[in-house]
Known about the structure:
By secondary structure, the chain is of the alpha/beta class.
Amino acid sequence: MLSASNASGSTTADLTFQVQEVQTVDAAGIDQKLAAKIEAIEDISDMIEEPAKAKSFGDWMIWMVHRAHLDDPTLTDFDFSNLHMPRGDLEERIAPKLAKAMAWNTNIQTLSLVNSNLQKAEGVVLAQSLKTNKTLLHLNLENNCLDSASVKDLATNLMENPSSKIETLRVAQQKQVGNSFGRPVEEAFGHLLEKNEAILRLGFFCSDAHWRNLIDRAVLRNNDFARRRRKRNMGEEEASRSAAMSAR
Length: 248
């Protein structure tokens, strides 16, 4: 209660104060309190409701990446194409965390990071994760900030993963080097395709005639293998249906 008086008289009034919490958002547009809440979740069943992408872009990215980190079984298509991720040295809960998560994620089949500001440091981490990933089918990293070394790492680590299921791999047109990755990178992709029988589509420019020819022939070989597998599977399915009908 507040009282006041003067020569004309006096008066009293009740004052009510309300404390309103101020939402803290840093320069990258991330609500740090919400981000901490998301990061604390250890079970995907406890995941909070999806933040509004248009309203809280950074929060939505952190929410999406944490789903990948927790290996959300409903998240099979991860698409940040044309969405600008903050650099890893400025925000470790998005690009660096996503790159690491792909080492143990068993549900994401398509990872689309076209023009997403993926940096070479995270490219190296992602390459290391691909050494153990057994689920990913389609990977598109075109038009980012990878350098020759990180692109080469992708090839060498995939070559060491006999269980890789990647069918589509696209790394062309990086902003720092364009399509000129250099002969060592072209050689690494050549050796990868010699050994790998899963890759059916490759977005990679090769200027060296020898390695380009080897890569082209390997892709044709892999597609031929894939056609034969489909034909064989169709035959087995037809045989199973015929056997089931005969048994009736």
